Fold Shikimate dehydrogenase (NADP(+)).
Amino acid sequence: PEKYAVIGHPIEHSKSPTIHQAFAHQFNKAIIYEKILAPLDGFTATVQRLQAEGFVGANVTVPFKFEAFALCQGLTERAQAAGAVNTLCFLPTGLLGDNTDGCGLVNDLLKHQQAPLAGKKILLLGAGGAAQGVMLPLLEQQPLLLTIANRSLDKAQGMVAKFAAEAARCQTRLEVQVMSAVAQSYDVIINATSAGLTDRPLDIPAAVFQSTGLAYDMMYGRETPFMQQARAAGMLVADGLGMLIEQAAEAFYLWHGLRPDTAPVIQSFRLP
Ligand code: ATR
């Protein structure tokens, strides 16, 4: 069978093998999908080994997405925009890098959260790697307004500058805010900060959470302070499980040319 892998550090917790095996099962395909712990200074060597061993593709997770980006000979447009790679294809011509994270987020919002984005007002919290990874796919949905709110304004300004032309093409008003100064209400609020790893609430005015829309945390596996803040204010709340499974589905499509049915896989992860 064809060989695939997910490379990270740590990697033990990764759900990717289970997800990809569930997708393969839908098409009666037998695949090998391994979890690979790369040493922090050994990402390149790990990729070279997989290439030599005939692997077809690999997913890349924390902290190697930027190194993967630098290593690729070819990059998709969305990987270039993200500045990071989460999906590798070992081609005869070299290493092709893609980034399916943003597409995964958008597909979860549209397909499973009933949260349309076209013509809507979106608030994206954070301006790090996770936020940049979803910028292009969000803009491609042609929202009316995309506000990037970050703790430090300069970092958000730096990120937004890279997407000014794309925003103009999509007729989206792209603006930057300090998180503590966000004033209006939004249809969708997306948390792309890494603050969910802590227990401190985000420094966002409570009024922002009075929106009638959806509060979405890209993190999966824990009820973050952001989710608690939004829930307490009565918003609809979602975690990043659907994004995780949709980004995997897009990688699966890249490798196999087949579109898996994601809903039952999401369901199976929600079961207690
Ligand atoms: P990632 O790859 O997860 O995006 P990153 O590139 O280090 O990680 O970016 C982390 C993001 O989370 C940044 O936007 C950071 O804000 P700053 O740019 O102001 O540092 C944001 N972040 C982290 N902890 C936060 C907190 N406690 N409150 C608000 N924002 C936080």
The chain has a mean pLDDT of 97. Residues 102-241 form a domain with the Rossmann fold fold (CATH 3.40.50.720). The longest helix spans residues 241-256. The pocket of 2'-monophosphoadenosine-5'-diphosphate is lined by residues 126-131, 150-152, 155, 193-195, 198, 200, 202 (CB under 6 Å).
